[in-house]
Design goal:
This protein has 871 residues and is an alpha/beta fold. 30% of the residues lie in helices and 20% in strands. The chain has a 7-stranded mixed β-sheet with strand order 5-4-18-17-16-6-7, with helices on both faces. Strands 24-26-25-28-23-27 form a 6-stranded mixed β-sheet. The structure holds iron/sulfur cluster (SF4). The site of iron/sulfur cluster has 14 residues, from helix 1 and helix 7.
């Protein structure tokens, strides 16, 4: 592909909203804007989408295949992968091999990997990191509707008169959906928004009512609602009788567990008035959408929570029509596409499982399968347990970082280190998982490969390449196909293009048309020419052959009251509230909740490259209620250790009344590349939902204790320091975090051993290693007040700031924003030089303060001044 400037319409690679993006330019010099024609975002982008160009640098990319850390050619690497897998199958059988894939893969990548494992290796041991974010929604929807489908579309959230957002910080995790709801509410202030979440998150900014329920009590709340709907005669009896089954049992369970508003309020830890108001609004509002996400799914009773929500919509007949329905929002860009191809271990293909032997045979015939799997494989947590126990001897990990993101992550990492054969396909050279690999395969990244993704409203969109893949990086579907050929399956994997893969997937989706449980059907797209595939417009499945390939799909499902179950009726599921498997106890009295921050994505491999995305949240943090912090002697800015029975991690203390007492929150993103001991999943319990296998990432009993820092500090440097040496070089392998800043790197440091004399070590840290040996170290400015435990130094060259280091015995250090801004200056003028070691701007000059708006670099002080000037 040429590198000339042009505009390419593609899709954002981050969250499940699936925004359309227009990319203009060539190489690294591209600009992006929201695609006004894409129905998901209609031109909008969030901070992550807007900063996509910042993430395209080749720094840290894996560019060539490697075996045992040495560069090899593709032929050798592919041969080793094929030989390794074949050898394990021969010696130990197909169940000794596993693939662990990702919602980051494109549908075509996913399809080929799933086909190889389930049709040709004879095992279903392929699972995906989507298991961690939405498998409870999958199982809940299958139980209720007979198939894994989201009945509605994004427009329903704008058309609704009541939007209930439960278990989702929509404002940060799916910002464009949040913007759409916020705008609808601005235009129709009578529209109500209810947020159900133990934390008061930024999503509550548009809420008419916030229900900070006790963690894990969601089933009780929605059972209480079902019971209330019956008591107040708010049911749609016509819909119930004609189109559903199992209502009486579900209602009985609801009555048994949540008999009255006071009982529900008491059990959920909520004010009675709030519960009554929520129930009343729900009962009287026909156009109601209930949005749910990881806060519901990531639970040992996640599937029941999903069904408790769906029960309320079935009882009122509110789904499949404009402005109503239960709405699962997926975390990843192609979690839905992975579900469609069958990328979950308990799925086979095109939304069908292994229950029906005839279905398995038909898929086997379609694939001309050499060795067909006939039973479900191991789900993610069990899969890595099997690696730990040595039952799985070869694992191929694609586009994900399980050494960081799986619960009990230290055990997962140890399991990978001990595994006989670990193959990793990735874009990045150095991740916590690639460090465990025997064979590394360089994968093409966003902007370098072609394919499709499906967003949370069933909309299939194209991802299009706008730059050539660097080095020898290749698309994942190509890598898997080449290995398949070397395993002896050349004919079945003779794809010449990604469009070939898509056409086959689309054709397979029509094969089971008319079967019970069949919902996913894109057979109308199975005959697309290469040109038509290239030009494919966003389309919502089903897109059946009967409708013809020109149609734009189906915005809503079940509007006719027909469901893909054996009876054609939707199923109520009787659900009983269950306490979390591991409740808090005397040793671990707090409940750990994990989640995302606004501007970062997963394990920072992409967003960590962007300075503007790194300013909003620089460090991992543990957020506590003031009462919990006070009881533990923790103050704002201190460093704390979060401990559980499974592991430990360190993070900066934040104290917030928005946190529920007894609960703490830690973001999921940080890992060994960016921080010392900050992998929160090392702490998370490996308990899973018994049906979905989704881990309970929102509920781990922990204790938070003060990490006894003897000193705190930071380094700002124009050139990066070797990872980890920040604190090491200060004589203490304690706490360090690194973050990209504009024109510099920022290191936050702390140590547990008092620094007798910081000067020699500071000079070593920022005076060397920043330029070639023997070069002029430049000018050194230093301030040392041993009595106050304060040390500050800076190095300049030719009048330009190269680096500075600030050390204190207390966590209160100068704000970094003004100092970082000095790195943009070619020469520091006299007032700035004079003020440098104070850490504050010369009097009279403004300090922008902490950055609030990442897109435009607006600081808190600037914002305050602007507001004051308008007052
Ligand atoms: Fe990308 Fe999600 Fe932001 Fe849209 S909302 S721009 S898909 S991260």
């Amino acid at each position: 592909m040429g590198e000339s400037a042009r505009t390419v319409r593609t899709t954002c690679p981050y969250c499940g909203v699936g925004c359309g993006v227009e990319v203009t330019g060539a190489g690294d010099a591209v600009s992006v804007r929201g695609d006004k024609c894409h129905p998901a975002n209609l031109g909008r982008l969030c901070s992550k989408g807007a900063a996509l160009p910042d993430t395209l640098s080749l720094e840290g990319r894996l560019l060539y295949p490697e075996i045992a850390g040495k560069r090899v050619d593709w032929d050798m690497a592919l041969g080793e992968v094929a030989n390794g897998i074949a050898g394990v199958v021969e010696r130990h059988g197909p169940e000794a091999v596993a693939f662990y894939v990702s919602g980051q893969l494109l549908t075509e990548d996913y399809y080929v990997a799933n086909k190889l494992m389930k049709g040709f290796l004879g095992s279903a041991n392929i699972d995906t990191n989507s298991r961690l974010c939405m498998s409870s929604a999958v199982a809940g929807q299958q139980r209720a509707f007979g198939a894994d489908c989201v009945p509605g579309c994004y427009e329903d959230l704008e058309l609704a008169d009541l939007v209930v957002i439960t278990g989702s910080n929509l404002a940060w995790c799916h910002p464009v959906i949040y913007q759409r709801v916020a705008r609808a509410k601005r235009e129709r202030p009578e529209m109500k928004v209810v947020v159900v979440d133990p934390r008061r998150t930024p999503t509550c900014d548009i809420a008419d009512l916030h229900l900070p329920l006790a963690p894990g009590t969601d089933v009780l709340l929605f059972n209480g609602l079902l019971n209330y709907l019956r008591r107040t005669d708010a049911l749609d009896w016509g819909f119930l009788e004609e189109h559903t089954s199992g209502f009486a049992q579900a209602l009985q369970s609801a009555r048994d567990s949540a008999e009255s508003i006071p009982a529900v309020a008491n059990a959920c830890g909520l004010p009675e008035q709030s519960v009554a108001e929520f129930f009343h609004w729900f009962a009287r509002t026909q156009k109601t959408v209930t949005v749910f996400s990881q806060g519901v799914n990531q639970s040992s009773s996640g599937v029941d929570k999903v069904n408790a929500i769906i029960n309320c919509h079935l009882a009122t007949g509110r789904l499949g029509r404009p402005g109503m329905g239960p709405f699962s929002i997926t975390g990843q860009p192609n979690a839905m596409g992975g579900r469609e191809v069958g990328g979950l271990a308990n799925q086979l293909a095109v939304h069908h499982g292994f229950d029906d032997a005839a279905t398995v045979e038909r898929v086997a015939d379609f694939w001309h399968a050499a060795d067909m799997a006939r039973k479900p494989g191991l789900k993610a947590v069990d899969l890595f347990e099997a690696v730990a126990e040595g039952r799985i001897k070869a694992v191929w990990i694609m586009a994900t970082n399980p050494a960081v993101s799986l619960p009990d992550a230290d055990r997962v990492r140890a399991a990978l280190r001990a595994c006989e054969l670990v193959i990793v396909s990735d874009c990045e050279r150095d991740t916590d998982t690639t460090a465990c690999a025997d064979i590394l395969l360089p994968a093409a990244a966003w902007g370098e490969k072609q394919g499709t993704v499906t967003n949370s409203e069933r909309r299939i969109s194209r991802q299009r390449a706008f730059r050539a893949a660097p080095g020898e990086a290749r698309p994942d579907w190509w890598i898997v196909s080449e290995v398949s050929r070397r395993l002896g399956h050349a004919e079945a994997f003779a794809y010449e293009s990604v469009a070939d893969v898509f056409r086959e997937h689309a054709a397979l989706s029509g094969l089971l048309n008319g079967d019970v449980g069949h919902d996913f059907d894109i057979s109308a797209l199975s005959a697309l020419s290469d040109e038509e595939y290239d030009a494919l417009q966003p389309v919502q499945w089903p897109v059946t052959a009967a409708l013809g390939k020109g149609v734009r799909g189906s915005a809503r499902l079940f509007g006719d009251g027909h469901f893909p179950t054996t009876t054609g009726k939707a199923r109520f599921v009787a659900v009983t509230p269950r306490a979390p498997v591991n409740p808090p106890d005397r040793d671990y009295p707090l409940v750990l909740n994990t989640g995302r921050v606004r501007d970062h994505w997963h394990t920072l491999t992409r967003t960590g490259k962007s300075a503007r995305l790194s300013v909003h949240t620089v460090e991992p943090y543990v957020e506590l209620h003031p009462a919990d912090a006070g009881a533990r002697g923790l103050g704002e800015g201190m460093i704390a250790e979060v401990r559980s029975r499974w592991g430990r991690m360190c993070a900066r203390v934040r104290i917030a009344r928005t946190q529920r007492e007894g609960s703490v929150f830690v973001p999921m993103h940080w890992n060994d590349r960016f921080a010392a001991a900050a992998r929160v999943d090392a702490v998370v319990n490996p308990v899973t939902d018994p049906i979905s296998g989704q881990p309970e990432s929102k509920h781990t009993p922990v204790e938070v204790v003060r990490w006894q820092a003897a000193w705190y500090g930071f380094v700002l440097a124009r050139e990066p320091l070797p990872v980890g040496t920040g604190a090491d070089a200060m004589g203490d392998a304690g706490y360090w975090v690194r973050a990209r800043a504009d024109g510099a790197w920022r290191y936050e440091l702390a140590g547990t051993r008092a620094l007798e004399d910081p000067a020699p070590r500071a000079r070593e840290l920022i005076g060397t290693g920043l330029h070639e040996a023997g070069a002029d170290e430049g000018e050194w400015i230093e301030y040392n007040d041993a009595a106050q435990g304060r040390y500050r130094a800076a190095r300049l060259r030719g009048g330009r700031l190269e680096a500075c280091v600030f050390i204190e015995t207390r966590p209160q250090l100068p704000a970094r924003e003004w100092l970082l801004a000095l790195f943009a200056e070619q020469t520091l003028d006299e007032p700035n030089r004079m003020a440098l070691l104070s850490g504050c701007p010369p009097s009279g000059e403004g300090d922008a303060g902490r950055i609030i708006c990442s897109c435009f670099g607006v600081g808190l002080n600037t914002l305050r001044e602007a507001i004051a000037s308008e007052a």
